[in-house]
Structures are given as C-alpha cells and as structure tokens.
Write a structure and sequence with these properties.
GO molecular function: signaling receptor binding
Strand content: 35-45%
CATH class of the largest domain: Mainly Beta
Radius of gyration: 28 Å
Number of strands: 22
CATH architecture of the largest domain: Sandwich
Subcellular location: Membrane
Strand order of the largest sheet: 2-11-10-5-6-7
Protein name: Ig-like domain-containing protein
Largest sheet: 6 strands, mixed
Structural class: mainly beta
Main location: membrane
Order of helices and strands: HEEEEEEEEEEEEEEEEEEEEEE
Helix content: under 10%
Distance between the termini: 119 Å
Keywords: Disulfide bond, Glycoprotein, Immunoglobulin domain, Membrane, Signal
Number of helices: 1
C-alpha cells in the first residue's frame, strides 16, 4: 500500500514539474508543403491517455485537432482542416504532442495553441505560410537556328516542384511542348514539332527550377512560351518567356571585318 501511494505521489510530482514546450521561433512553410508544429513535454511523461487539444483562437470553431480516447474527434474539428492533421501516436507515449498539417495553405497562417487540460499545461506556436510565384524572364532568350536554348522559369521563393504538374506551351502551337510530374515526362499530347527536343532539369525541381531545355532550335520555335503550374497555391501560376531565333548565317557575322585598301 505504501509503495502504491509513493508511486502515485511520484507520478503527480512528475506531472506537476513537466512543462509543455513549443518552438519559440515561428515555423515557416510554403503553401502546399507538409509541416510539423513541434511541441513536447519536458521531462517526458506518457500522455497517450490524455486529451490533447490543438486550437486556433482566431477561428470558429477553434479546434484544429481534438484528440480524446485515443482518436481524433471529427465533430470538434474546424472543417478547413478536415483530413489534414495528425498526431504521432507512438510519440504520445514519449512526451511528443506535435501536430502535422498536410498541404498547408496561406490561410493556415496564425498562432496555434497546444493544451493538455487534465495536466493544466498549454503552449503556443506561430505558423507562417508563404506562397511561391512562377517567375519567367523579362528578357528574351536569343539563339541561332540549330543551337540549344534554355527557357528560364523558377519558383520564388523556391519550392519543391517534384510532385507538381508543370506544363510548357507555345503561344502559336496549340498542343503542349511538354508536361512533367513526379520525375516523369508526359509526352502523349506533345506537338510533333517539339517531339524529342524538350527536357526539364528534374534534379533541380526540388529547388524550384522548372526551366525548359529546347534542343536543335528551328525558326518555327520563335515566339512566346508559357510555363504553367496549374495546381500551385498562388495568384501567379504562369511565367512567360520570349524566344528569338536568328538565322544560321548570322552566326559568323560578329567575326567578319571590312578590308581597308
């Protein structure tokens, strides 16, 4: 009996001394990313049987994730976060009450409150979600017939584009130049004029580089190109690049000199 009382006292002491700690620095993310709002108890105690509340006081309803009896209570959850949040079930046994938000939106920006009501613990954390814009080029790209051209296009600020669909189109030639997603190029709808002559820099897409490489340029390629990310969470989903193609005979003009008699 004395042992049980001592154990209970130790548990109560641990609960009383534990602190709920969230990051003091704002968490920053780009729209479309997954983000983890880090929060934990120190020293660690299991909270697997506790109610865990994540809220945003500025919203109605305010509950982002309401965890009770080992599961998410959907009837408490703000609809805009439906199927977009989770806790780490294994982590609840080891102090971790962090929350993951999938595919964050600019509207997710705000201060989040984490609370353990039965332990009378709470802490807050700030999330800032920015959006990336598609940036083309103000200056035309000029090449000579037969050369290769790189049409620059990128995301600012940089954002991982590997899972996004990226489409390149010519302003006159209606079928697409190319379409790519998940490191795979979809060329079934590609115009015959561009077949076998287009590629993107897949290894650079993680850093937001979605430029197009066009090989063996012809005079028919001249014109305006559009780089489009249709499902990007941004007001600017398209970038524009003008391609100027010079005839082949202009290649050596720069090296010609006039004879002076």
């Amino acid at each position: 009996m004395k042992f049980l009382l001592l154990l209970m006292c130790l548990c109560l002491t641990d609960d009383a001394n534990s602190q709920l700690i969230c990051s003091h620095q704002p968490i920053t993310a780009l729209a479309g990313d997954d983000v983890i709002l880090q929060c934990h108890l120190e020293p660690p105690i299991s909270v697997s049987d506790e109610t865990v509340e994540w809220t945003r006081p500025d919203l109605d309803p305010k509950y982002i994730h309401f965890h009770q009896d080992g599961r998410l209570m959907f009837d408490h959850q703000n609809p805009s976060y439906y199927l977009r949040t989770r806790l780490f079930m294994d982590g609840l046994m080891k102090r971790n009450v962090s929350m993951k938000i999938f595919k964050v939106k600019v509207s997710d920006t705000g201060r989040y409150q984490c609370a353990l009501p039965s332990l009378q613990k709470e802490a807050s954390i700030q999330l800032i979600v920015a959006q990336s814009d598609v940036i083309g080029s103000d200056k035309p790209v000029t090449v000579t017939v037969g050369d290769n051209a790189i049409l620059p296009c990128h995301l600012e600020p940089p954002s991982d584009m590997r899972t996004q669909t990226v489409e390149w189109k010519h302003n006159v030639i209606k079928p697409s130049c190319m379409s790519t997603r998940n490191r795979k190029d979809y060329l079934d709808l590609q115009d015959e004029n561009f077949r076998g002559r287009t590629s993107v820099f897949h290894e650079e897409m993680i850093r937001g580089n979605i430029s197009l490489k066009l090989t063996n340029v012809t005079e028919l390629d001249a014109g305006s190109f559009t780089c489009n990310v249709p499902k990007l969470q941004s007001q600017v989903r398209r970038g524009f690049i003008n391609l100027t193609v010079e005839p082949e005979e202009s290649r050596n003009k720069g090296g010609q000199t006039d004879d002076i008699g």
